[in-house]
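Q: Could you predict the 3D structure of Tripartite tricarboxylate transporter family receptor?
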Amino acid sequence: MIRSRSIRPPGRLLPLILASTAVVLAGCSGEERFPDRPIMLICPWSAGGGTDTVSRKVAAMLEQDLGVPVNVVNATGGSGVTGHTRGALAPPDGHSITMITVELNMLHWRGLTNIGPDDFRPVMLLNQDAAALFVPADSPWGSISDVRAAVAEAPRSLKASGTAQGGIWHVSLAGWLDAEGLRADDVLWIPINGAGPSLDALMSGGIDMVCCSLPEASSLMEAGRVRCLGVMAEARIPDFPDVPTFGEQGSDWSMGGWRGLGLPLGVPEDRAELLVSAVDRVIRSEDYLGFMEHTGFNVSPAPPGEFREIMEQFDRQMGDILMGEAFQSVRRTRYGPMIFPIVILALLGASLAVLLLRGSLRRDPGAPRLDRAGLARMGLVVLFVVSYMALAGQVGYLLSASTLLLGMLLALGVRWPVALATSAALVPATYQIFAVGLRVPLPWGWLGW
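A: Sure. Here are the predicted structure tokens for Tripartite tricarboxylate transporter family receptor:
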């Protein structure tokens, strides 16, 4: 006798079906929500400077508007190459946004990178600031004429800073020197990543003057620790009415920079528009405007289309300036960012040559030059280089190189204590040589940039 299987009444299944459907729909809606995780705001310059100050204010207000954490990451190094490159190459999912600066119009002209304005989708221009020249409060110089006379009397004896080599404040000072009939490098420029650290060096006596914007030095001016000799603007800055322009002192020279927000290319249109709207709300708020007024930063917002035109205009201007004969000393750098991969490729070629040579010396004339083990070793080295290229930008140089080198040495049969010691010593030493000594930008990734 066959018993029929009991069938649960539909009434009992209906609540279960409805609950399951609700869970599925909730999951789908969660996947479509943007932003659904923290946003990274990449700042190419050091903490304490003007760009970092504006970045942190914008990040705090975007966090309130979007409802997710917005974390500022100072990706410094390479005269701005590191931060701008990381921002341009970030995943185009809308969760990475970059505080791009006028150096984006300069780096490619200097041959430091191929990243330029066309590698970003403009979100919003935030402000533009003119350059200004600062000296310690007890400096004997009372005007830019005094500085000019001191430079003319002893070329290359005075030191200045304000940003990295070839940055906007460096070009501003070098341009003024050239306009005054002096050489653009008659004042030694000390590369420091940002106005904040540069002003610290000025206070400690490490340098003689700083070129940066007025807001970046406003607190030191109010404390009476620095004096501003002049601002490179066509008219006096309303928030600093006592600071004369260079034009008022007989110098026909003006220069400044800009900063704004940009996204990597390829961000979906709906996400990009959502971020543009959020930034627009932030920069129109009383909180933001009050902050900018209190700190002395110029407020000159521009929407994406207008921002694009401004970047293109600056790019043409910087091309004319930096490619001119007078600025060859500013353009010239000893080492560019390509030196590291070139050295790695050279070492790879040398390693392969050694493997080939050892294989040919150890074998009979009629035997194959490389057996499977030799080919495997060669492939392992190539795999190491390819894996580093794929991982370094996201993970960072120290972590990716250490892990991959350790794995390669172990795979080649090196005893693990020797492999561990070699990796622990070689990778940090290489970083010190390239990133610190030669100032080649290497990514930090998960360790903080």
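Q: Anything worth pointing out?
A: Confidence is low (pLDDT under 50) at residues 1-10, 19-31, 334-338.
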